[in-house]
Structure formats: C-alpha cells, structure tokens
Amino acid sequence: MGPVAEAVVDLDAVAHNTRLLSGLAGHGKGQGAATMAVVKADAFGHGVLPVARTVLASGATWLGVTSITEARQVRDAGIDAPVLAWLYGTDDDFAWAARHGVDLSVSTPDHLDAMPPGVTVHLKVDTGLTRNGVAWTDWPSLVARAADLERRGTVRVRGIWSHLASADDPGNPSVALQLERFEEALAVAAKAGLEPQLRHLANSAGIVDVPAAHYDLVRAGLALYGVEPIDGVVAGLRRAMTLRARAVNVKRVPPGTGVSYLHQYVTDRDTTVVLVPAGYADGVPRLLSNRGAVAIGGVRCPIAGRVAMDQFVVDAGDLPVALGDEIVLFGPGDGAEPTVEEWAAWAQTNPHEILTGIGARVPRTYVSSGELPHG
Ligand SMILES: Cc1ncc(COP(=O)(O)O)c(C=O)c1O
C-alpha cells in the first residue's frame, strides 16, 4: 500500500487552466496581457516546482511569489523565468534579488530607500484594498523619487501595480473605483516621468470578469488550480488536486454505537465504519466533524463524529469496504467526491485556505499525460 494519505496533483489540469486564463488575458484591453502564475505558498499547496514548470510550458511567462525565500526556491531549482516577489520588511536580502534577476515590489517609501543598485522594481499603489501598497497620499512623492533613481540608473521601474478587493463579487462598485484610482496613479507616475512596461491589476476573478483590469499582465492564483473564482460563473477550469487516502480500519458496528471523541455521532443501524488516516494535522478541518463527506467506491459517505488530529471515521452504511480501499476526500468533482469548494463551505472558509492547509506530511504526487516536469 502506498502512502496512507496523498494529494495527487493533475498537472494536465494546471496546464489547461493556464492556457485558458492566458487566452482570456490575451483578449483584454490593448494588445492583450501576459500571464503571471501566482505560485506563492508552495503553489497554493500543490508544490511550487512542478507547478512552476507546468505553467511556464503552458502560456504563463511570469511567476509571482510573496517572500524572497520563495523566489530563491524557484531560482535554486534552475528556473530562470521572470519572478516578482512582493511581501517582506525593509531588511531582506534585496541584493540577492538584484543579482538573481528577481523583480521586487515597492510598497512603502522605506522600501524604496532600501532598494540596492541594479534592482528592478514594480511600484505597488494602494487603490482601495487597504492592505499592502503605497498609501495614496505618498504616491506622488514616491513616483517622483523612483523616477529620479531611474534617471540616475540606480533602479529600473518595470511595473506599476495594485490589487483588487472585490473582483469576485461582480458589480461591486469598488472594482470601478479601483480602476479609476489605478488610472489616476498611472497618470501621476507618467507626469513624474515613469512609463513602466508592465501595468498590472487583475487577479483570477479580474481575469474572468474585468477585462478593463487586464492591462499588460494578469496575476492568476486560485484559478490556476482549477477553482472557479466567481460563484456561479463557469469559465471552464479543471480542479487540479485530489486528496485521497486508504481505509486503515473497517468494522461492522450495531445501532447505538458512539463514534470518535465524545461520541458526538451515534449509529442508528447496523453499519460499517471506516477509518481514514488523515486529520486536522493534515488539513482536514475539524469543522468537518459530523458535517463533511467523502467518496468511497463512487458513493458519498458522511464523516461520523469528530475529526481528530490524524484520523476520522466515515459511516459507510452497507457499502462493501475492505481494508486498503481508496477514499477520495475531495477531488475534481466529476463523480461522487466532494469538491474543495464544498469542503470550504463546510469549514466556513475559502478554497484557498483548504488547499494551502494540506499538511506537510501529506505527500504530493503528480500525474500528467506528458513527461512529468522534474522537481
Ligand atoms: C498580490 C496578489 N496578486 C494576485 C493574487 C492571486 O489572486 P487569486 O488567487 O484571486 O487569483 C494574489 C493572491 O492572493 C495576490 O496576493
């Protein structure tokens, strides 16, 4: 028997999603936008190196990460595609980034001060998300200083960018307001003498629903991994991750049997209970206790009682289940298995948190119809 629980990543699905999103980006404003694949957080839990190699072979030309440590992981693996990193304090190893051709985001005046000679930057303006990005009031002076540094040849300003707050909520007025502000920010930068090659604003939902936000580059995260970014809008993405395990205990129990900690599930008939070797340490939310479900042999079965750290129990009824049988915790949604969106709903969270929460001890394995990208 293989690993007791594993996350199987379908790289064909990642490739399909990349092609689809790159196609949509190509139809935006202007000449069409390039695609940045956001591979932060270990590619949303899917494994950064196989995903990075797949997206770069399928239409993405940029990689997006948060920390410089994440950028290092990509460069150390020999991937030399353009990379943008965007989340750090002011004392990180920016010189390493400059030496290794990793573009850096500048989100405060202090960050601009901390940039070493030879670095290429993207200036991030806060257009209304009120998270990261240069404060609106600091923007005119920051672009003036950046233009000055560029004239002296100290830094190169390749990009101006921002992030949308509500593109996954079609019609939300904040989207139009952020677009307006972004245009204003670009105009202020142009007046200061900056004409960056890359203006970028759209995330997955923006790619699908806001063509006016595509500009020169789009940043695809969640959608790359196959989750539709807007409820009720089907772009045609394919979910990439299947979380599966093998039954490690199967037994027949009578009615009235209390199951798992505190016996919060009690059987109401003769039934088969199946033990699944994955728990909250592996990313199975405790909120799925008595609420979630899995698929066994193409049949959906409820989670019985409390999810524990390493394991949980499923009520399989009269299904013929044997030790070692496969249990699909979530998957593409082509059959009886739940999707990651259903898991997110049961756990009162978003699919991002489920995917990035799959624990480190769950091995990632890869399937692909072509040659597997190594690493
Ligand atoms: C700055 C930035 N751009 C793009 C993305 C990708 O967003 P999404 O997953 O909605 O496509 C993220 C991820 O959260 C992000 O932080």
Secondary-structure blueprint of this entry?
Layout: E1 5-10, H1 11-25, E2 34-38, H2 40-44, H3 48-56, E3 62-65, H4 68-76, E4 83-85, H5 94-99, E5 102-106, H6 109-114, E6 119-124, H7 139-151, E7 155-161, H8 173-191, E8 198-200, H9 204-209, E9 217-220, E10 241-246, E11 249-253, E12 258-259, E13 265-266, E14 271-276, E15 293-296, E16 299-304, E17 312-315, E18 326-330, H10 340-346, H11 351-356, E19 364-367
Parallel strand pairs: 1-19, 2-3, 2-9, 3-4, 4-5, 5-6, 6-7, 7-8
Antiparallel strand pairs: 1-10, 10-18, 11-14, 12-13, 14-17, 15-16, 15-18, 16-17
The structure holds pyridoxal-5'-phosphate.
Q: Radius of gyration, Cα only, in angstroms?
A: 23 Å
Q: Spell the H/E element sequence.
A: EHEHHEHEHEHEHEHEHEEEEEEEEEEHHE
Helix content: 25-40%
* Shape-level CATH architecture of the largest domain: Alpha-Beta Barrel
Given helix and strand content, the structural type is alpha/beta
Terminal residue distance: 24 Å
Chain-averaged pLDDT: 96
The fourth-level CATH homologous superfamily of the largest domain is Alanine racemase
Give the spatial strand order of the biggest sheet.
11-14-17-16-15-18-10-1-19
Global geometry: elongated
Uncertain regions: pLDDT < 50 for 5+ in a row? none
Number of helices: 11
